[in-house]
Design goal:
The chain is an alpha/beta fold. Among the domains are: about 280 residues, Rossmann fold; about 250 residues, Glycogen Phosphorylase B (Rossmann fold, 3-Layer(aba) Sandwich). Strands 1, 2, 5, 6, 7, 8, 9, 10, 14 and 15 form a 10-stranded mixed beta sheet that branches. A 6-stranded parallel beta sheet has the order 18-17-16-19-20-21, sandwiched between helices. The protein has a 3-stranded antiparallel beta sheet with strand order 11-13-12. The two termini are about 15 Å apart. The structure holds ligand NBY. Ligand NBY binds next to helix 6. It catalyses: [(1->4)-alpha-D-glucosyl](n) + phosphate = [(1->4)-alpha-D-glucosyl](n-1) + alpha-D-glucose 1-phosphate.
């Protein structure tokens, strides 16, 4: 269609006609790109079908893909010609990009990981696809009103035509409810219609598919007792919106419906389109379940194999447990999914019957061993009227992994030690990664250019080659150029933020950034308490005049998570005070980024000097923001938690700011229950004063409810060790300031971080999954 800038301009102008407004330009560009990738998409699919290669299906309740326009331009290799061509025609690509609604189909790290994996699979030319839900409403839009988070529905499907293609021809029917015996009757069928999104590989012509399912009313008859209106509403609700909870599991029937809907639709399709006999499934297909949300795929696959394919139990079980593998993303107890047996039995009676049988057989097998009662309980899939999805996921998978070395060790030695003892060979680690194409090449073209000028462009395809930058650590001119890039990215961020933030931001200040979901264990509270202590010190000590710092916060709290919402409020209250104080504001400044999402992230990671990764050690399974910061040259200020451990291993302790209790120490304190927050407060005059004023409401503006924070720190005995780690955190901040003064050393640290970040590309992660778990073969789409 077009191969040069001139051809692009000609075609674009022709299609645009007289309607030269940005909306039309966006639509025209989108349509041209869809046409451009269509042929490769069709060819990729043909190739996969005809060559009968093994294919991966990555099932996830979330895919936080972010905007696709510019990403796809990069992948198609036409970014520059389109950008320049548009400019010459009087359009601004950045402005057009802003028109694309943000597909926020995820909460945080887990959903974003799925999106990075899609990108890497296509880039590595591996046959792997995503299966998920086409939520009409993505994650809520956050607004800060009077300092409080308020939530508004997000309608990403509005107005503008997206990248997807509806496939009515591939719709399937999902069975809910009904009675089982003598056969399954009175079923309430729901139609699942796929919307396919192209995932364009960066090199070559691989275009994989992200298939998102939408729930619609079925044409099949309803059971006599069911009211049609009720049925219609219930059906639409299934793909209506994403659950905004990233940590707390509530046993809501709608969530279970979503899970089963997505799994059944995906599995039915996989089985229907198998190129060979069903007993060869494990050689033709790998299914990865992203956390336990799709764990119901295990009994659902059994159901299909038993009831629809007519296999015997043993063979069906053998096939299932050689096809499905499971990734765990959390050890937080409250995030472990447990479903009420009655709920499952009513919603998906046959599936529940199968779970029951899986549990019965597993327990029978366990009877042959001598096990303590406690151990037996831990190994039970059904226990106390609840179905423990993590146990089901381990028993029904051939591989189980954690997402960072520390996290996997904790699974093996603590959280899942009984299961690990039963299945030692199943457990393995796959440290997370991020796609350097979005988080470096797209988000930071300035840095990309500097790197390429310095080490050539092989690293674009082999990010591990970023290692070559190590030779520039003490290179003054490289350091100077790097500083220039950082300055440019800070100014771009400021230009973007200042529209909505009314106090001016100092581009020469240290940008200290804490962006992620709000949660107790992520300890945004520790950060803001520390800032308050800096404020106090500047006020009280006329000799303390620290180098200017801007503290950025961004992130959403689950709507029902009151404590997290009060922390957001506290940050905004303290921000208002700090930012309007003439003495203080030239030293410290606070910015709260409203409605933090992927697009904000793309502007923030490149502008950061300091990456706040301060979770309570052992609680953050991996973290992936830490990698995005590192790749953009920010230095980690963090605990030895999740993938921070591996980041520090690579860059060396001298190139990070590490503080706080270690995971072993935290776990011991938790086990022996001998931590006393009150004692910590008593021993520290600083904390004592801070806490007294905080809890008396002196730091409040009168509208927040400080009792949630009091409850957490005092009544609940500070479960995330905010007070315990406070001083070592504060001391490390002082070290940051001191280090920043030596710019030569600082820039060297920054180079070192970039140079070591290649290993954290999701290309590495995906290659490891492929080698160790999925056994995929690279397929070249040449024709
Ligand atoms: O997964 C995150 C972990 O906290 C983080 O450490 C890790 O890096 C990342 C990728 O492995 N977990 C996470 O983001 N979890 C969720 O967002 C989530 C979403 C939905 C539900 C539970 C958790 N849910 O119950 O539906």
């Amino acid at each position: 269609m077009f191969y040069s800038k001139e051809e692009f301009k000609e075609e674009f102008t022709k299609r645009l006609g007289q309607d030269k407004v940005p909306q039309t330009a966006y639509a025209v560009l989108g349509a041209m790109m869809k046409e451009l990738l269509e042929e490769d998409w069709v060819k990729t699919n043909q190739l996969y079908t005809e060559s009968k290669v093994k294919q991966l299906y990555y099932i996830s309740i979330e895919f936080l893909i972010g905007r696709m326009l510019v990403q796809n331009l990069h992948s198609l290799g036409i970014f520059t010609i389109v950008q320049e061509g548009l400019q010459e025609l009087g359009f601004n690509l950045e402005e057009l990009e802003e028109m694309e609604p943000e597909p926020g189909l995820g909460n945080g790290g887990l959903g974003r990981l799925a999106a990075c994996f899609m990108d890497s699979l296509a880039a590595l030319q591996l046959p792997g696809h995503g299966c998920g839900i086409r939520y009409k409403g993505g994650l809520f839009t956050q607004q800060i009103e009077n300092g409080f988070q308020t939530e508004y529905p997000t309608d990403w499907l509005r107005e503008i035509e997206g990248w997807e293609k509806r496939r009515d021809d591939l719709a399937v029917e999902i069975p809910f409810y009904g009675r089982l015996h003598p056969r399954h009757t009175d079923i309430e069928w729901v139609k699942a219609v796929p919307y396919d999104m192209p995932i364009v590989g960066a090199s070559g012509r691989t275009v994989n598919t992200l298939r998102l399912w939408q729930a619609e009313v079925s044409e099949r008859p309803l059971p006599a007792y069911k009211d049609f209106n009720e049925y219609t509403l219930e059906t639409a609700a299934i793909s209506d919106r994403l659950y905004p909870d990233d940590s707390l599991v509530t046993g809501k029937i709608l969530r279970l419906k979503q899970q089963y809907f997505m799994c059944s639709a995906s599995l039915q399709t996989i089985i229907k389109t198998l190129p060979g006999p069903v007993h060869e499934l494990p050689h033709q297909v790998a299914i990865q379940i992203n956390d336990t949300h799709p764990a119901i795929a295990i009994p659902e696959l059994m159901r299909i194999l038993l009831d629809e394919e007519g296999l015997e139990w043993e063979e069906a079980w053998n096939i299932t447990t050689h096809t499905i593998s499971y990734t765990n993303h959390t050890i937080l107890g409250e995030a472990m999914e447990k479903w009420d047996s009655h709920l499952l039995a009513s919603l998906v009676p046959r599936v529940y019957e199968i779970i029951h049988e899986i549990d019965r057989r597993f327990k029978e097998q366990l009877q042959e061993q001598v096990l303590k009662e406690q151990e037996f309980k831990k190994l039970s899939i059904i226990d106390d009227g609840l179905v423990k999805m993590a146990v089901l996921a381990v028993v029904g998978s051939y591989k189980v992994n954690g997402v960072a070395e520390l996290h996997t060790d904790i699974l093996k030695n603590r959280e899942m030690k009984e299961l690990y003892r039963q299945f030692p060979g199943k457990f393995h680690n796959k440290t997370n990664g991020i796609t350097h194409r979005r988080w470096l090449i797209k988000a930071n073209p300035e840095l990309t250019q500097l790197i390429t000028q310095s080490i050539g462009d092989d690293w674009l395809k082999k990010p591990i080659l970023l290692n070559d930058l190590n030779k520039f650590i003490i290179d003054a001119s490289f350091q100077e150029a790097l500083k220039e890039v950082k300055r440019a990215k800070k100014n771009q961020l400021i230009a973007h933020v200042e529209k909505s933030w009314d106090s001016p931001i100092d581009p020469l200040s240290i940008f200290d950034i804490h962006i992620k979901r709000f949660h107790g264990y992520k300890r945004q509270l520790m950060n803001i308490l520390h800032i308050q202590s800096l404020y106090d010190r500047i006020k009280e000590d006329s000799t303390y005049r620290p180098y200017p710092r801007t503290f950025f916060f961004g992130g959403k709290a689950a709507p029902g998570y009151e404590f997290a919402k009060q922390v957001i409020k506290l940050i905004n209250v303290i921000a208002a005070k700090v930012n309007q104080d003439p003495l203080v504001r030239s030293h410290i400044h606070i910015v709260f980024i409203e409605n933090y999402n992927v697009s904000h992230g793309e502007r923030m990671f490149p502008a950061a000097d300091i990456s706040e990764q301060i979770s309570t050690a052992s609680k953050e399974a991996s973290g992936t923001g830490n990698m995005k910061f590192m790749m953009n040259g920010a230095i980690t200020l963090g605990t030895l938690d999740g993938a921070n451990v591996e980041i520090v291993e690579r860059v060396g302790k001298e190139n990070a700011f590490i503080f706080g209790l270690h995971s072993q120490q935290i776990m011991l304190l938790e086990k022996h229950k001998n931590y006393r927050a009150q004692e910590v407060i008593e021993q520290s005059p600083e904390l004592k004063s801070l806490m007294a004023r905080l809890l008396s409401g002196e730091l409040s503006d009168g509208t927040e409810n400080i009792s949630f924070i009091r409850n957490q720190l005092v009544d609940l005995n500070d479960p995330y060790f905010v007070l315990k780690d406070f001083h070592s955190y504060a001391a490390m901040h002082e070290k940051v300031l001191a280090s920043y003064e030596d710019q030569g050393n600082w820039q060297g640290m920054s180079v070192r971080n970039i140079a070591e970040s290649g290993i954290f590309s999701s290309d590495r992660t995906i290659q490891q999954y492929s080698d160790d778990v999925w056994d995929l073969k690279k397929i070249l789409n040449v024709y």
